[in-house]
Known about the structure:
Elements (H helix, E strand, L loop, with lengths): L3 H7 L3 H8 L3 H7 L17 H10 L12 H4 L1
Organism: Fulvimarina endophytica
Protein name: Helix-turn-helix domain-containing protein
Amino acid sequence: MEPASTIVTALGGPTKVAKIVRVHRTRVSNWCRPKEKGGTGGIIPIKHAPALIAAARETGLTLSADDFLPASEAA
């Protein structure tokens, strides 16, 4: 589920992302699940965006606030 799957994968997976944002790994995994299955439908809670953007910057990745929007809203 996008954009969560792409961001989580780029940052090293659910376990690493969970450490970055200080939540349990299953919560991060839920970002990548459809709403019908108890997930967020690919949406990462916006409160985590600053930490994820900073972590991406530290590893040389480019991540912006627009990357957190679903493709239909980002255009």
